[in-house]
Every structure is written in C-alpha cells, then in structure tokens.
Amino acid sequence: PTVEDGLKPVQRRILHALWEKDDGRLSKVAGVVGDTMHYHPHGDASIYEAIVNLVNMRYLVEGQGNYGNIFTGHEAAAPRYIECRLTEMARREIFDEKITAFTPSYDGRNKEPIILPAKVPILLMMGVKGIAAGLSTEIFPHNFNELVEAQIAIIQKKPFKVFPDFITGGIVDVSEYADGTGRIRVRSTIEPRDRNKLAITSLPWGQTTESLISSIEDAIAKKKVQVREITDLTAEKVEIELTLGVGAMQDKVTQALYAFTNCEVSLSSRPVVLYRNRPCEMTVSQILEANTELLLDIVRRQLEVRAGELDNLFHDKTLEQIFIEERIYKRIEEQETYEAVQQAVLDGLAPFRPRFRRDITLDDIEKLLQIRIRRISRYDIEKNRREIEGILAEEAEVADNLKHLRAYTVRYLEDLLKRYGRKFPRISQISEAPFGAIEVRALTASELSIKIDRVNGYVGTDVRGGEELFKCSSLDKLVFVWKDGRYKMTPPQDKIFV
Fold first, then answer.
1. How far is the C-alpha of 184 from the C-alpha of 178, rounded, in Å?
2. How many CB atoms sit inside 10 A of residue 213's CB?
3. Which is the catalytic residue, given 39, 48, 67, 81?
4. Alpha-carbon distance 410 to 471, whole Å?
5. Residues whose CB is less than 8 angstroms from the CB of residue 161 and which lie 6 or more positions away in sequence, other chains included
C-alpha cells in the first residue's frame, strides 16, 4: 500500500472507476469489475475480491446484496447479483481532479490517478495485509475517530497514541504493540450464561465462527476443554453458545478456551509500505504523521486552486459588468471586420484598466462577444455587484485560511468527526492491563488418569482393567525408577511396558 493515499493499486483503480461513472446510484459489481479492468491488468477475480473487501470495511464503498459474512466466513454472491457505489465519505474526501496527477493506463488507452488526494488516513483506517516481491506487510485497522483526533494532536504538537480496532470485536492486549512494529493478543469476549453455559460474542481478528468452533472441537477431543455441546447462533452478531460438561466451572472453562483454542490469538504487525515511491518499514505514528503532513499539503493546494478560481471569476464578472454597464457592446455595431470588432471592445475597455487585476486578452474578448442579447437586456446590475462582493468576501476568507493553514485544517478534521464519527464507534475493547499468564498446568492437572497393569507390567492412560495410580496433566512427565538405579522419564503415554 502507498502511504500517500493508503491504497493498493487495485483499490485505487476500483475507486477511480466508480468515480468516473458515479451518479449516486448503485452499479452491478460485474460492471464495476469490467470498468476497472481498463486500468488493472491482473484479471477480474482479484478486482471482485478487492471490491468485496472494500464493502466489508464500510468506509469507501457501500454495497447492496449478499457480500458474505465476515463472522461466519461465508462468501459473497457472484458479481452479477450484487451492487455497489461510493460512500459519501469517498465522494467528499478522496477525490479532487484539480489537484490529481494522472498517468496513462497499462495499455495507453486511458488515464488513471497516480495518487488520490485522500484527506482521511485510509491506510490505518482499513488496515492491509499483502505480499509483493520479497516483501510482506501486515497493518491492523484502527478506529476512525481516534485517528482523526490523533491528527489534530499532531497538528497542535501534542502527544498521541492509537491502537487497533477490529470489526470482529474482541478484547485487545496492546502492551507489546510497539507502535505497530510488535505484536498484540486478541481474545474473544466470553460471557457466562445460566449455570452451565458460556456465550462467545466476538471473534479474534482473522478468525471466523467456523475456524473458532473447529479449534474448540479439537480441544474437546483432546480433553482440554470441558464442553459437551456447541451451538452456533451467529447472524448479524457473533453468538456461539457452549454447554459445559457436568461439574465444569465457568471460569475454569473460560481460561481453558483462552489457553487451548483460537479464542485467544497472537498477531504480529509489520508495516511495510510505499512512501515517496520507495518501500520502507514505518511505525504507525510515522504513517499518521506522514498522512497529516500530506493533508496539510492537500488542503493548501485546494485553497490555492480556489483562490485562482475566484481571481478568474472576479476578472470575468468585472469584465462583464463594465462591458454591459458602459454599453461597450454598442461599439461593435459599426465595425465591418471581426478584427475591428475585437479592437473596438479592447479600446472601449482600455480606460477601465485600473479596475482589472491583469491585462485583458483575446480570450476575454471572445467570452464577452459570446454573451447573448437576451442576457444583456435582462442584466441585473445590483445582482452582479452582490456577486462580486461575495467573491471578494470568499477571497478574503481563503487568504485567511491559507495564512492560518494549521488552524483551518484542525477545523476541517473536527468537522470530519461531527460528520462521520457516529458511524464508526470503537468495536474492539482495549484491555486495561496485559493478559495474565494462564496456568495451563493447573487447568490440566486432572486431565489424564494413569493406570497400571501389575500382572503384565504396563502403565499408561489406556490400560484396560488396570488399577488407577493417579491423575496428571498431559504436560507432566512420568519418571520410572528400577531397583538397579536405572530410570526413564517420558510424557504420559497410552501404554508403556515397564
């Protein structure tokens, strides 16, 4: 992914294709895939998958139809059955053709943006996972509100911290996050239900209900977890109900689920990115600081473009005002050639040169000569003067914003929070303290029953009809000592001759 706009090439091309055809209505994903293929040379499958991921991340593309289920792992419907379009955030915050540089597409038939002028920190909002030639990257998604608040802190030169936030929820231990270059531990939320039931209501990042249940079943088979029934009630929210075995205690089973199943996972982060067209490894803070500097530059360029537009608008309005109010158009009635007409208008405007900010060009004269008689006859002097006053007022505002660029950008970021903040509350819970070490040996202390067959000389967990010696853990070691001093140490086995 590129730090500047936070996108991989396929994502950038999808968004550009959607922007080109955007009319506010939904489009068939199959059609969007076809449009994107004019820019992306790697086939339709990768484009379709990227669209589904963008829709499921919620920020830039919204969809209609079956886009799969991020909780259960069910796949999306075929592209001919589902639709998508840009979100309001995407339309407002990541496109501006006036300051976007374009390059020819792979076949030279079209032009595509080199970088989109994104004013939101897309890379850290959505996160990314991928590989390239000899490189791999893993960046976790973060909370939109916290990222924007951190950008405000960066501009105001205040300290800040941001931590991952996953759409699958979970409880996150960030004690070893190391600003995005370390690792985190993520746990499912497990709630007690009744006396002998537990409910899993969130998933660790990267897990589905199917993979989580599979790991629980494996732990049950190995007698690590005392659960006798699993019921998956997941729909719009995660809910896996576990019925405990006879005599099992809820707190101990919860600890065993964290210890022996995917209810707890450890995830490593490695932010390898393209920055200024070169691959490098950056921390989360460095990425966000780079995004903030780029935001300031984008805002400055947009203000400068607007200042130029207002300058041209003032010039055009002033030209039109003088041309009509001073009846300069009357001078062209007696002219016999087009060149004479142009010269007559130039001569008529010459005395008013001090009212213009720049010299009058032949292009300006062409605009004046294209004004229709009906517009001249219905010309409203007061309305035109009010419009000029409005231009001057906006010019003063733009100039002030350029002068106080950082304060203006902070106001822009605060407006982002008001506009979109409610849509993206934090989903994952940050653990107040690091997860404590789970005493696995204590949890499995009575996991196995060691028996002895004194007649045939066998010891183990699968000695039929034998006398029970003691219970132990699969993590324990058994030590056998002979009268001659020989000894043998071994993990608990099904059957061993001694």
1. 9
2. 20
3. 81
4. 65
5. 150
Report how far residue 359's alpha carbon sits from residue 346's, in angstroms, rounded to the nearest whole number.
11
Tell me, what's the pLDDT at 101?
Answer: 95
81 belongs to the catalytic site: yes
Contact at 8 Å (CB) between 60 and 15?
yes
**In this predicted structure, which of 45-54, 238-247, 429-438 has the lowest mean pLDDT?**
429-438
User: Which pTM was predicted?
Assistant: 0.86
Q: What whole-number distance in Å separates Cα of residue 472 and Cα of residue 293?
A: 60
pLDDT digits (tens, 9 = 90+) for 238-297: 999 999 988 888 988 999 999 999 999 999 999 999 999 999 999 999 999 999 999 999
Tokens read off for 372: 């229709």
CB 321 within 8 Å of CB 279? no
**Distance (Å, whole) CA 397 – CA 409:** 14
CB 61 within 8 A of CB 84: yes
**Mean pLDDT along residues 120-139:** 91
End-to-end, the C-alpha distance of the chain in Å comes to 61
Are 440 and 456 spatial neighbours (Cβ–Cβ below 8 Å)? no
Strand partners of residue 112? 103
3-state SS record for the chain: CECCCCCCHHHHHHHHHHHHCCCCCCEEHHHHHHHHCCCCCCCHHHHHHHHHHHHHHCCCEEEECCCCCCCCCCCCCCCCCCEEEECHHHHHHCCCHHHCCEEECCCCCCEEECCCCCCCCHHHHHCEEEEECCEEEEECCECHHHHHHHHHHHHCCCCCCCCECCCCCCEEECCCCHHHCCEEEEECCEEEECCCEEEECCCCCCCCHHHHHHHHHHHHHCCCCCEEEEEECCCCCCCEEEEECCCCCHHHHHHHHHHHCCCEEEEECECEEEECCEEEECCHHHHHHHHHHHHHHHHHHHHHHHHHHHHHHHHHHHHHHHHHHCCHHHHHHHCCCHHHHHHHHHHHHHHHHHHCCCCCCHHHHHHHHCCCHHHHHCCCHHHHHHHHHHHHHHHHHHHHHHHCHHHHHHHHHHHHHHHHHHHCCCCCEECCCCCCCCCHHHHCCCCEEEEEECCCCEEECCCCCCEEEEEECCCCCEEEECCCCCEEEECCCCCEEC
State the average pLDDT over residues 62-70.
94
Angle at the Cα of 183 (from 182 to 185), degrees rounded to 5? 160
Give the distance from CA 245 to its chain's centroid: 41
For 371, other C-beta atoms within 10 Å of its C-beta total: 14
